[in-house]
Amino acid sequence: MVHAHPPSAGGRAAPDRLSTLFQRSVEPYLSKRRLPDQQAKVLRAIASCRTAAAGGHVNVCDVCGHTEQAFNSCQDRHCPICLWPRQRKWISNRLQRMLPVRHFHVVFTLPSELRPLAAFNPEVVYDRAMKAAARTLTELCADRLGVKPGITAVLHTWTRELLRHPHIHCIVSAGGLNLQTGEGFKPIDGAFLLPVAVMASLFRGKLLNMLKAAHRKEPLHLPDALPLSDLLRPLHSKRWVVFAKARMDSRKHVVRYLGAYTHRVAISESRVVHLDEHGITFRARGKRRITLTDEQFLDRFRLHILPKGFRKVRHFALYAPGNAARLQAVAEHCAAQLDDVPPDADAQDDGSSRRVCPRCQQGTMVYVAMLAYPHDSLDSS
C-alpha cells in the first residue's frame, strides 16, 4: 500500500512546514544549479510528496463504508515526511531476526579530515567505513571474547546543523556463536562491550588500509588535488573517536531505539521552529537555533542524499543474510536466557499500517483504488 494522509477541503493535503519549503523552493533551486541526477530526482520526489503530482488513492472502511481520498507519499528514503510507516514495518521484521538477548550500541565517527574525501567519493568512503566498523567489532569479539555476535550497522552523515559528519551506529548482540566449540550460544558479560581505545585504533587502521586499496584499484577523486598519501598520513597518528554505550536492557527496546536511527533523515518536522517567506528556523543542539534561507537549507540537505542503491543499513556477522540458519540454531540454544520481553509480545505489533475508521471506530480503513489528480482540475477547485 502507498501511504498518505487525506486531503483537506478542496482536495489538497494540509502541508507541514517542511513540505511547504520543498514544494515552493525545489524547482527554483534546481533552475540555478546543476546537480547530479540522483540529487535532483530525490529533491523533486520530496517536493511532490503527498501532493497532486504524486497521485492518490481511496480508503474505505470495511464496516461502515466511510470513504476517504488521500494523496500518495513519495516513499523516498530521504523524505522527512513519510518515514514512519516503514519504520514500524522494519522494527517488526527485525524483532524476528535478532537474538533474544541484550545488545550494545557503539558509534564509529570518521575524522573531519576525511569529510572532503567523502564528499567527492561518498559511495567508496561510506561503504569502506561501514565494513571497517563491522570487521573491527567482529575481530575483537572473536579474539577477546570468543564470540561471533550479531551486528546491525546504520550510516548517518549529518550533524544537528545539517553539516557533513559521517558516523556509523552499530548494535551488537551481547553474545553469539561460541567460537571455541563452533556451536551453541556464549554470552558477553559486562556493562560495556570492548575498550573504546582498542576499537578506535583497529577501526582507524582498517579504514585507512581499505581506502588505499580502493584508490589502487580505481583512483579516487581527491579534494584540492592532494595525493591520497598526503591526505591520509596525519590520520595514522590521530586519535579517532569511538563512543560506546552501556548494554541496553531488552531486545524490543534495542530494536525500537535502532529503528529511530534507521528511519531518520537529516531533519524532521518536529525540529522546525518557524517558516516564513525568508526561510526556515530549526532547533540544533541544546537551545541553539539555526536560521537559513530556502537555498541554504537545500544546500545542506542535499549533502545527505546517498548514492543510488547505497545500503545505509547493513547486517554483519551472525546477522548477515547468509547466516540465517546458523542464527536460528544459536537463538534456539539461548532460548532459556531470554530477556524481559515475552515471546508473544513481539508478535503483537506486526508493523502494518492498519488504521481504525474515524467515523465508526470499529472498522479498518482499506486501500481500494488509485486516483489521478490532474493539476488543472485541482487548481480550479
Write out key terms for the chains shown.
single chain; 381 residues; alpha+beta; 2 domains; three-stranded antiparallel beta sheet; 20% strand; globular; disordered N terminus
Give structural notes.
The chain is of the alpha+beta class and 381 residues long. It has two domains: 17-82 and 351-379, no CATH class; 84-348, no CATH class. It has eleven helices and twelve strands. The chain has helices at residues 17-32, 37-48, 84-95, 115-120, 122-145, 196-217, 228-232, 251-262, 294-301, 324-333, 375-379, and strands at 56-61, 67-71, 103-109, 147-158, 164-178, 185-187, 242-245, 272-276, 279-283, 289-292, 313-317, 365-371. Strands 3, 4, 5, 6, 7 and 11 form a six-stranded antiparallel sheet that branches. Strands 2-1-12 form a three-stranded antiparallel sheet, with no helix packed on it. A hairpin with a 5-residue loop joins strand 9 (279-283) and strand 10 (289-292). The chain is globular. Residues 1-14, 339-352 and 374-381 have low confidence and may be disordered.
The overall number of domains is 2
Overall geometric form = globular
Poorly predicted runs: 1-14, 339-352, 374-381
Q: What characterizes the major β-sheet?
A: 6 strands, antiparallel
How many helices does DSSP assign?
11
By helix and strand content, what is the structural category? alpha+beta
Mean pLDDT across every amino acid position? 85
Overall helicity: 25-40%
Number of DSSP strands? 12
Beta-strand proportion: 15-25%
SSE arrangement, N to C: HHEEHEHHEEEHHEHEEEHEHEH
- What is the alpha-carbon Rg in Å? 23 Å
Please report the distance between the alpha carbons of the first and last residues: 27 Å
